Amino acid sequence: MVKKIDKIQAQTVKKVMRYIGKYKIYLYISLLFAFVSVFLTLYIPKLTGIAVDYMIGKGKVDFNGIKNTIIQIIVCIILTAIAQWIMSLCNNKMTYQVVRDIRNDAFKKIQHLPLKYIDGHSYGEIESRVITDADQFADGLLMGFTQFFTGVCTILGTLFFMLSINVFITIAVVVITPLSFFVAGFISKKTFVLFHKQSQIRGEQTGLINEMIEGSKVVKAFNQKENVMKKFNAINDKLEDTSLKATFFSSLTNPATRFVNSLVYTSVGIVGALGAIKGNLSVGQLSAFLSYASQYTKPFNEISGVITELQNAIACATRVFELIETESECEEKQEAVEKEFFNGEVVLDDVSFSYVKEQKLIENFNLKVKRGERVAIVGPTGCGKTTLINLLMRFYDVNSGAILVDGVDIKNYKRGSLRNGYGMVLQETWLKSGTIRENITMGNPDISEEDMIRVAKICHIHSFIKKLHDGYDTVISENGEEFSQGQRQLLCIARVMMSKPSMLILDEATSSIDTRTELKIQEAFNVMMEEKTSFIVAHRLSTIRNADIILVMKDGRIIEKGNHEELMKAKGFYYNLYQSQFLGKAI
Amino acid sequence: MKSLLIYLKDYKKESVLAPIFKMLEACFELIVPLVMAAVIDVGIVNSDKTYVMKMCGVLVLLGIVGLAASITAQFYAAKAATGFASKLRSALFEHIHSLSFSQTDVFGTDTLITRMTSDINQVQSGVNMVLRLFMRSPIVVIGAMIMAFTVNPSEAFIFVIVIPLLAIVVFGIMLITMPLYKKAQARLDLITRGTRENLTGVRVIRAFNKEESEEKNYFENTKALSKEQQFVGGISGLMNPITYLMISFATIALIYSGAVKVDTGILTKGQVIALINYMSQILIELVKLANLIILTTKAVACGDRIAAVINTKPDMVNGKEEVINTDNNEVLSFDHVSLTYKGGQGKALDDITFTIQKGQTVGIIGGTGSGKSSLVNLIPRFYDATEGKVSIFGRDVREYNYNLLRDKIGIVLQKAELFHGTIEENLKWGKENASKDDIEKALEYSQAKEYVDKKPGKTSFEIEQNGRNLSGGQKQRLTIARALIKKPDILIMDDSASALDFATDAKLRMSIRNMSKDITTFIVSQRAASVQYADVILVMDDGKLVGKGTHEELLAQNKVYQEIYYSQFPKEEAVNG
Q: Which residue, of A357, B249, B494, B570, has the fewest CB within 10 Å?
C-alpha cells in the first residue's frame, strides 16, 4: 500500500517536472541565486565574528580592521538582498506559469471529456480539482522552491562554515540536531491520523449542512429544527474533540523542536566556551558559531513542515492529473467529414445502448425518420427518452448498431459538424454569464439586429428584455438566476431559433412555460419545425398529438409506434395514457 | 467580527492564560543572550570552567521551563479556538434556521454553506494563531529592545530607530499588496465560474460547438491571473530582502559603535555579542508577525462575513398562541393580502382576498410567475404578507406559535427534497412515532408503494444525500407520503406532481380525496386536468386573483381560465373526454 502510494507520488513528481521543463531557465537561475544568497548570509556571521575579535578590550580595538570587515559585510548584505529578490521573482514566475499551464490543460480536457465522466462525477468535485487543488499545489510548489532549496543549501553551508571554524564543536552540533528531526517526525505521524479523522468528520458535517440548508423549507415545514440541531450538535461535539486533539498535538512541533535547538545552542556554548578557555577558539569565532548553530537547526524545523506541505501539494497535483489524464471522447475518425447542411433523414439501425453494462436500457432499436417528419417520444419517467437524445447528439456512443444521418453513420461526421446540424432545447435551461445578446446569438453570432429582434418577438422575450436596464446588452448572472424558469426556457428557445439548424431536438422544451404562453409561441415552433426533422419529448399529450410518428417507450424499448389516430385505435398503452388525463373526473 | 467574540466567553480562562504562558516563554528566550554574554565575559575571561557549566545548566533549565510554558499555552489556545469554533458553528446553524426565508433568500444557499464551513474553519485557525502569537511577537520585539537598554542605553537607540522603520516597511508592503491579492482573488472567482459553467452547460456548449471560444476566454483569464499573481508576488517578495537589509545595517551600526565603546571600556565583547543576538531575534519574529497579520486579516474578513449573518435579526416574530381551534369551519382566509419579496421588483401578490371552508379541495392555477407558489407559501408562514392579513381557523397566522401552526399543515414543495437516511427515517419527519402501518398507508396513498416495494430493503432502503439515488418522480411521491403521514388538517401540494404521468397523478388525487373529508387540500398546478375537479379553483395571473369558482363557472365566464384550459384541451377533445 505504502509502496503503491510512493510510486504514484514519484509519477506525479515526474509529471510536474515535465511542466516545469518549459521554465527550466528560471529554475536554474533560482537555484543559482539560492546558493549565492545562502552562501553570503552564512558568510556574514563569520565576518561579524572577525569584527568582534578586533575588539580585544579597552583601548585595544583595531578600528582599521573593523572598517575593512564592515565594508565587506555591506557588500555581502546588498548582494544577498538582490539575490533573494531575484530568486523570489523566478520562483513566482515558475510556479504561477506552471499552475496556469496545468489549469489550462485541465480545462481543455473538460471540453473533450466524455459526457459519461461528467454525468458520473459531481460538478463540485471536478471544479475543486481545477480550482482548489491547483491552488494548493501552487502554494506547496512555491513554498517548496523557496524553502526547500534554501533549507538544504543552508544546512550544507553552515556545516561547511562550522567545519572551517572548529571540527569538534561541529560534530557536537551534528550529533544532537537529528533529535529535533526525530521529535518532529514522531509528532507529525501522530497528528496525521488526527487530521485525517478531523477532515473525515468535517466532510460528514458539511454533508449535513448542505442538506439542511438547502432543504431548510422542509425542515421548517415539518418542525424538525430541534431534531436537526441535535444531530448537528452530536457531530459538532465530535468535531470539537478531534479538532482540539489535532490542533494541540500539531502545535507541539514548534516548542519541541525549539527545545531541541536550545539544547544544541547550549552544547555549543559549553564546548565553545571550554575551548575558548583552552585557547582553541576566539570569542568572535564562538559568536559566529552560536549564530551558525541556530541557523543550522532552523531549516530542519522548516523542512519537516515543507515536506508535509509538499506531500499535500503532490496529492493535489495527483488529483488534477487524474482529471487531465482521463480518457477523452474517442478520437475523430481520420476520414470524418464536415457537412454544412443536413437533409435530415435519420435512421437508427439495430441500436443497443446502456450506461452500465449490467443494466440493459435500449436494445435492438430500429427507426426510420424521413426529412421533415416530427417524431414525438412519450413514456413514463426513466423510459429512455433522454437517452435517445444523448445518442442522437453523440453525447454518448452506441454500444452496437449505428445511427445514420442522410445515409451516413454519424461516427463518420466530425462531432462539431453533426451537432451543428441539430438545434436542441433541453428541459434544464442553461445560460452563460454574459449579455443576453451573447446568449441568444450563441449559435449564430452574425445574425443581424433586426433578425434577432424579430425572433425575440416571436419567442415572447422581446417585451421583458426591453424593460431591462441595458436591453439586449444586460449582463445576466450565472444561469440567469434573475429570470423565472419560464423566461429562461424562452431564452433557450430563442437561442435555437436564431441558429437555424436542419434538425431539432426538443426535450421537454416547454415544460416550465405556462400553457398560454406556450400556445402563443407554438406558432413560432411550427414555423421552425417546418421542413425540419424534429424529435420532441413531452409530457403534455396536447403537444404530441400532431406528430407524424409517436414512439411510446417503456423500459428502454419502443412498445408502440404510429400516429395519434392509429395509436388511439389500437387501445394500448398510449390510449390509456391519453385517457388518464381525463381520469380526474371520477373523483 | 467583534460581535462574535461573545462565543469566546466560556473560554475566558483559556484565552487569557494562553497568551500569558506564551509571554513567559518569550521572556525566558530573551534571557538566553544575557546568559551567553555572562559566559563569555565572566567564564571565558576568568577561565572559570565551573561557572561556564553552571550557566549552561541555567540555559537548559530555561529551555525546559520555556517548553513547559509553551506547551501549556498551545493547549489553552487550541482549546479556546476549537471550543469557540464549535459554539459559533452551532449558533450560526441554529440562527440560519431561525431566519425567515425572505432573509435567507437574500444571502443565498451557497453563501450560507460557505459561512458554515470554510469561513468558520478560517476563523478557528485565526483565533488559535492570534492567541499563540499576538502576544509573543511584540513581546519579543519590544523585549529585545528593553534588554538592549539594560545592556547599554545609547546602543539601544539603534533599536529604537530601526524597529519603527521595520514596522513601516512591513505594514507598508502589506497595505500595498492586500488590494492586489483581492484583485487576484476576484480573477480566480471568474475562473471558478468559467469552470463550473462549462460543466453545467456541457451539453449546450457542445451542441453549439462553443468549445474553442470558451477555451479562449478561459485562457485569457488564467493568463491575467498568472500576471497578477506574479506582480503581487514580486512586491511581497521585497519584504524579506528589505527587512534583511535594514537589520543588517543596524547590526553594522551596532558593531561600529560597539567597537568604539569597547575601546573606551564602556562595553565588553560579550555585551556586543548579546546586542547582535537581540537584533537577529527581532528579524525572526518580524517574519512571523507579518505572516500572522496576513492570516488574521483573512480570519477577520471571514469573521465579518459570519457576523453579517449572525447579526441579522429574524424579521418574523414567533406567535404566542398555543391552541388552534380546528373546529372553526373557516379554514383559511386572505384579507387584502399583498406580498413583495425583498429586492424583488413589483408585487408577487397583489391585494388578494378569499375564504376557504373546511374539507374543500382548492385548485390554484395560473401561468409561470403568476404568484401561485407565493400564495401557498404564506399559509405555513414561510413568508409574512407585506400588507393585509392571512388567517387560519379564524385567527391571524402571526398569532400562532410556528410549531403549532406547521404541525397542522402538510406541505409538498415544488422541489422534492429528501435527506440522507432510510425511507422510513425520511417519512418519520412527518410523524415521529409513525407505526409500520402508518408508513405503509402513506406510501400507498402517495402511489409510492409499488416502487418502494421493489427497492432492496423496502422502507429501510438507504436514500443518498439530496435523494440522488431516486428519480424525480420517485422523490416526489416520497415527499407526498411524508406530508400525508402527518394527517394534516391542511394539505398543500405545490406543483408537486409535475414529474408524475397523468395516470399516476389522477390516482394520487383520488386517493387523497378518499383519505378524509376533513382535510382541506390545496393543489397548485399548471395542468387544468389536475385542478378541474376541485371544489374551488383560484385563477392567478400576474400576482392577482382573477377568478374564483368551479370549473364550469370559470369555463363559462373567466377569460384567463378559458385560455389555460383550451391550450391544454383543444375544444373537441374536452367534449369527448
A: A357
Range of the domain at B471: 415-487
pLDDT digits (tens, 9 = 90+) for B212-240: 888 898 999 999 999 998 998 889 888 88
Nearest CA in chain B to A467: B345
Reply yes or no on whether the pLDDT at A479 is more than 80.
Answer: no
CATH assignment of the domain containing B433: 3.40.50.300
**By C-alpha distance, which of B521, B531, B436 is closest to B487?**
B521
Residue A176, pLDDT > 70, answer yes
End position of a domain, from candidates B310, B328, B362: B310
Chain A environment of B479 (Cβ under 8 Å): 218
Contact between B152 and B276 under an 8 Å Cβ cutoff? The reply is: no
Main-chain phi, psi angles of B153, to 5 degrees: -60, -40
Domain contains B367: no
The domains found in chain A, sorted by start residue, are 22-324 (1.20.1560.10), 342-421+503-587 (3.40.50.300), 432-500 (3.40.50.300)
Judged by CB atoms closer than 8 Å, whether chains meet at A542 and B567 is answered as: yes
Residue B9 within a domain:
no
The answer to whether the CB of A249 falls within 8 A of the CB of A192 is no
| Contact criterion met (CB < 8 Å) for A222 and B482 | yes
Contacts of A208 in chain B (CB under 8 A): 420
Looking at the structure, tell me whether residues B260 and B123 fall in a common domain: yes
End-to-end CA distance of chain A: 65
Which of B271, B289, B310 is a domain's end point? B310
ipTM of the complex: 0.78
Any CB–CB contact under 8 A between A366 and chain B?
no
Nearest in space to B432 (alpha carbons), one of A558, A223, A381, A421:
A223
Please give the average per-residue pLDDT across B463-476, as a whole number: 77
Write down the pLDDT at residue B43: 82
Clarify whether residues B94 and B227 are in a common domain: yes
Say which residue, A305 or A502, is predicted with more confidence: A502
Per-residue pLDDT tens for B350-382?
A: 899 999 998 888 999 987 667 888 899 899 888
d(CA A553, CA A560): 7
In the predicted structure, residue B100 carries a pLDDT above the cut 70: yes
Residues B444, B297, single domain; the answer is no
Cβ contact, residue pair B417, A99, below 8 Å: no
Q: How many domains does chain B have?
A: 2
> What cell numbers appear for B435 in the block?
407505526
Residue B574, pLDDT above cutoff 60: no
To 10 degrees, the CA torsion angle through A73, A74, A75, A77? 80
**Contact check, Cβ <8 Å, A515/B526:** yes
Going by their DSSP bridges, the two strands B520-525 and B421-422 should be labelled as: unpaired
DSSP letter, residue B516? -
Tell me the three state secondary structure of residue B521. Answer: strand
* Residue B331 maps to a domain: no
Measured distance CA(B257)–CA(B193) in Å, rounded = 60
Beta pairing, strands A400-405 & A346-353: antiparallel
Cα nearest neighbour of B535 on chain A: A587
A224 at the B interface (CB within 8 A)?
A: yes
Contact B97 A216 (CB under 8 A): yes
Interface check A523 vs B, CB under 8 A? no
Find, among A400, A366, A581, the residue nearest to B525 by Cα.
Answer: A581
Cell numbers for B46: 576568568
Quote the CA–CA distance of A262 and A203 in Å, as a whole number: 40
Of B226, B238, B240, the CB nearest to A97: B226
pTM of the model: 0.71
Contact A273 B270 (CB under 8 A): no
Indicate whether B149 and B280 sit together in one domain.
yes
Q: What pLDDT, on a 0 to 100 scale, did the predictor assign at position A587?
A: 35
- Least Cα separation, residue B285 to chain A (angstroms): 13
Residue B372 domain-assigned (yes or no): no
Helix H or strand E encompassing A182:
helix A178-214
